[in-house]
Amino acid sequence: GAGVSQSPSNKVTEKGKDVELRCDPISGHTALYWYRQSLGQGLEFLIYFQGNSAPDKSGLPSDRFSAERTGGSVSTLTIQRTQQEDSAVYLCASSPKSGGNTEAFFGQGTRLTVV
Amino acid sequence: DAKTTQPPSMDCAEGRAANLPCNHSTISGNEYVYWYRQIHSQGPQYIIHGLKNNETNEMASLIITEDRKSSTLILPHATLRDTAVYYCIVRVATGNTPLVFGKGTRLSVIA
């Protein structure tokens, strides 16, 4: 595809349910990042992948959050036992390689609402 | 934590140049300066980045001071579509570091 694709674009779930958010990076991009943005707030880093490995998981807010990436491509962010404070826009970005001289391209996000 | 300081908001008249400042006084020699913007309800969009030289592309110009402790993003002829939150980010040139976003500057372009 032409850009980073995220699905679903919107998700409403009941408190306590598990949700899976999907990110399809730009083909060939080795680095993949997950962020979340609560209403009216800035972007909060969650986790980073280089290939299929996650060298930086420091931003995951709790053990209810996990992420995986398979085949160096698609990534899934899973939130277990969702809470209302998990409501936010979850953004995914990819870049051709890691490091500071490479731009990252963002998807349009998944808006998660926990009711 | 973000290593940059930006004014929370700015206004600019349509058609005029928008000059967005950023302070990064603790920047290291191997850190780049990046600018992204986020238009309402969209994902962040890359604008430009640089190390120490001034940079220009089709969207904007980036002016970095000689001591690299501050920079200015210039949108030469702002349009209403440039209304967005603009983020200035410093990022190390090597290793696996993510972009760390601060609060940015909310630019309002006024007709």
Structure notes:
The complex is a heterodimer of chains A (115) and B (111). Chain A has 115 residues and is mainly beta. Chain A has strands at residues 5-7, 10-13, 19-24, 31-37, 44-50, 53-56, 65-69, 75-79, 88-95, 105-106, 110-114. In chain A, the strands form two sheets. In chain A, strands 2, 4, 5, 6, 9, 10 and 11 form a seven-stranded mixed β-sheet that branches. In chain A, a hairpin with a 2-residue loop joins strand 5 and strand 6 (53-56). By secondary structure, chain B is mainly beta. Chain B is built from no helices and nine strands. Chain B has strands at 9-13, 18-23, 31-38, 45-50, 55-56, 61-64, 70-75, 84-92, 105-110. Chain B has a five-stranded mixed β-sheet with strand order 1-9-8-3-4, with no helix packed on it. In chain B, strands 2-7-6-5 form a four-stranded antiparallel β-sheet, with no helix packed on it. In chain B, a hairpin with a 4-residue loop joins strand 5 and strand 6. The chains are: A mainly beta (115), B mainly beta (111). The A-B interface holds A 4, 31, 33, 35, 42-43, 45, 48, 50, 55-56, 59, 91, 93, 98-101, 103-109 and B 30-32, 34, 42-46, 49, 51, 91-104.
Work out the largest interface and the residue count of each chain. Answer: A-B, 25 and 25 residues
Shape of chain B: globular
Helix content of chain B: under 10%
Radius of gyration of chain A over all CA atoms, rounded: 13 Å
Give the termini separation of chain B. Answer: 35 Å
Mean pLDDT over the full residue set of chain A? 92
Structure annotation, total helices of chain B: 0
Task: Provide the spatial order of strands within the biggest beta sheet of chain B.
Answer: 1-9-8-3-4
Q: Specify the number of helices of chain A.
A: 0
Quaternary structure of the protein:
heterodimer
Class from helix and strand fractions of chain B: mainly beta
Could you name the ranges of chain A where pLDDT drops below 50 across 5 or more consecutive residues?
Answer: none
Structural class of chain A: mainly beta
Q: Main β-sheet of chain B: number of strands, strand sense, barrel status?
A: 5 strands, mixed
What's the helix-strand series of chain B?
EEEEEEEEE
Span between termini of chain A: 33 Å
Mean pLDDT of chain B: 93
